[in-house]
Design a protein that fits this description.
The chain is about 30% helix and about 10% strand. The protein is α+β, with helices and mostly antiparallel strands. Strands 1-2-3 form a 3-stranded antiparallel sheet.
Length: about 70
């Protein structure tokens, strides 16, 4: 896939603490799903977890950079 717009907000720009905790929780759930599908993400770090502030997304954070 080719993304032509910015997606997500850096984790360092979180608002309330609850937003940070929910984003990390959702990124970890995404990591588990990827692992269960046979994908091993070897770089889980602050730079690879992004906040999702789109109200209809259904999640608060996600893990990216799966190369």
């Amino acid at each position: 896939r080719f993304v032509v717009e910015s997606v997500g907000t850096p984790l360092a720009k979180f608002g309330p603490t609850k937003e940070l905790v929910e984003a990390i929780r959702d990124a970890l759930l995404g990591h588990k799903r990827a692992f269960d599908a046979g994908v091993l993400h070897c770089d889980v770090s602050e730079g690879n977890v992004l906040l999702c502030r789109h109200p209809s997304a259904g999640f608060k954070g996600f893990l990216h950079d799966l190369d």
